Sequence to fold (145 residues):
Amino acid sequence: MARASRRKSKGKGTNGLYIGVAAIGGGILVVLAMLLFATMDKDTATVAGGNFSAEQYVKRGSVSVGNTYRIEASVVEVHSHGSSRIVEVMTNDNYRIGLFVPSGSGFSNIRKGMDYVFTVKGKNGQLEDGSHVKGILVVVDVEAK
Fold:
């Protein structure tokens, strides 16, 4: 009986070792994930919905629908359409994209040549002729950079 009890205690010590190694490995994974997040490119920062990629948006804008993003960009042009505006921006990864600024949004101080951080939401829309457009980036907030 004495041998059986020694074997049981030896097994318990091994399980503790496995738990300790797993805890250390998990801690290392958490630290690596934090470092990866901290070194991400700032123009892909996101509020919700995954990382914003201007390249992906240009290829298929509909993937942005329902998601909210923060985009750092320089204003290239501001096009008025009634009381609404389309702000053409150059992202940090050198893509030109258009952002819709709806009338009454209060963002009347967006100027050509200035850098901003835009918070945008991907939505679907409809043109004056009735045709549908998917993946319009609508500005919901603006911060001067």
Summary: The chain has two domains: 1-39, 42-144. The helical segments are 2-38, 54-59.
